[in-house]
Amino acid sequence: xxxxxxxxxxxxxxxxxxxxxxxxxxxxxxxxxxxWIVLRDRYGLTQLALEEGVExxxxxxxxxxxxxxxxxxxxxxxxxxxxxxxxxxxxxxxIRVEQLEVLNAAKLPPFLIEDExxxxxxxxxxxxxxxxxxxxxRRNLELRHRVAxxxxxxxxxxxxxxxxxxxxxxxxxxxxxxFVVPSxxxxxxxxxxxxxxxxxxxxxxxxxxxxxxQIVKCFRDEDLxxxxxxxxTQIDCEMSFVTQEDILNTFEGLVQYLFKExxxxxxxxxPRMTYADAMxxxxxxxxxxxxxxxxxxxxxVVKGQGFPVFDAAGLxxxxxxHNSAMYTRKQLDELTEFVKRPQVxxxxxxxxxxxxxxxxxxxxxxxxxxxxLQKWKAAFNANPGDLLLxxxxxxxxxxxxxxxxxxxxxxxxxxxxxxxxxxLWVVDFPLLEYLEEEGRYFAMHHPFTxxxxxxxxxxxxxxxIGEVRANAYDMVINGVEVGGGSIRIHDRAVQARMxxxxxxxxxxxxxxxxxxxxxxEYGAPPHGGIAFGFDRLCSLFGGxxxxxxxxxxxxxxxxxxxxxxxPSPISGAQLKELSxxxxxxxxx
Length: 588
Ligand code: ASP
Fold this sequence. Notes:
By secondary structure, the chain is of the alpha+beta class. It folds into 3 domains: 12-104, CATH 2.40.50.140; 138-273 and 423-557, BirA Bifunctional Protein, domain 2 (2-Layer Sandwich), CATH 3.30.930; 291-412, Gyrase A, domain 2 (2-Layer Sandwich), CATH 3.30.1360. The chain is 30% helix and 24% strand. The protein contains 17 helices and 22 strands. The protein is globular. The protein starts with 17 loop residues before the first strand and ends with a helix. It binds aspartic acid (ASP). Aspartic acid is lined by residues 174, 196, 198, 484-486, 529-531.
């Protein structure tokens, strides 16, 4: 090594030793008689000192020429500092420089390489390699590393085998668009990048691997939101000869282990909630259960009193924001504006306060007597000081809007603490979901998910098909879906039937998934699995909202890597070699 120690290592015990350190110049400070350099590497900061009359003028001149981010090597004696800095572990010592060598000069970086930087998002993305030098960013990747290592340790201990599956595959139907790659050797034909290794992990079960996992890149060509990346990482798992119960227990174990190892937290047993309850009480299949504020349905309480909005509504439903009756008119107007935003989609907000004397004052007092309003209070189990917020309209839309309002109130009331973790399983998802725009059913999870045996008969009747529940489950933490999976179909006939329900002709099913249907004829064991969003899990552990901060080289919101400037055009010659022009012509 070019160094004897790292910049985070030296302590008073080392005083008197001659050491060599290497690293980047974090900053320099000139106090006239003494010149300091703060040297940085991944492990920490160490102060170097060059004092008038002690270190040579030649060395001191060399020190003065250093700029921020120069890479240097320095040899000297560890000495006690005059004024100690108890904020850093090496703050009691400094190096009295004897030799200083510039290993590489550096241009002035475009933003400060400090914990608090002056660089905007775009600039830091363009110079991501510099941003990665900063402690907070590096720490995120260190956390990611720890989560990955702990995952491997746990799953290895449970007899899971890590198997790599191919990246150049063909289309998998996970509901998003595929990224495709032209094949030079097969003109006019394309590979697809996996949206997940779903079919491969199922084939590994047919192969008898019994327990598989992989920390794996997946690719989905979706419109990007703040927490989405076109390429992302999953902890992908599959098990044979298991029931849903076995999978839930195994992966509850994994998540408990990760919380313990990475955060030092005991999260205990995960509660379970059915999809139906999640929708009914939270209006959301990924409820943030750090706080209660459950939905209260009011149809029976509020209808028939002459208020046209409630009388016409399919559903009248509300939440009780405890101790928020002091909300001002202005704040309530803000909430009304909030629910009317197109993303939330409500037409208005009705509110009611429970006054100190127990009387209820509502925004629709015109239509409701105090006796009637007392019934509201009872329905909400409300007490003086509580604020009741009520929406009305078409049931699904109204639940969705109230879910947004509930989260907003949770935020405003400080109930969504990043350091509190509330994990749960959401189970019994519907198997199918009807998409109005497409005029047909889609698999809610994916087409390989098995119906609950007790619901299979409902598949025969078009009126009950939508009620069929799946052996499918999500793990949700703090309102974020961190993982999801299902027990799979392992019977060829059932799988073929599922494809047909989803609108595939026999030929289409064969062309796309013939390999899987065939495999099911050679002794496919019952199996099931789950995949966790690894980036999301890391951002949750790190207390951040965006997964971007936990990916070394992420893409921006337009799916671009602004550092390497990709995607980018390719040459005509390259296109020709890939027969892309031919493929386009053929199609035309
Ligand atoms: N392949 C699924 C996904 O990516 C997870 C699973 O069913 O195991 O969501």
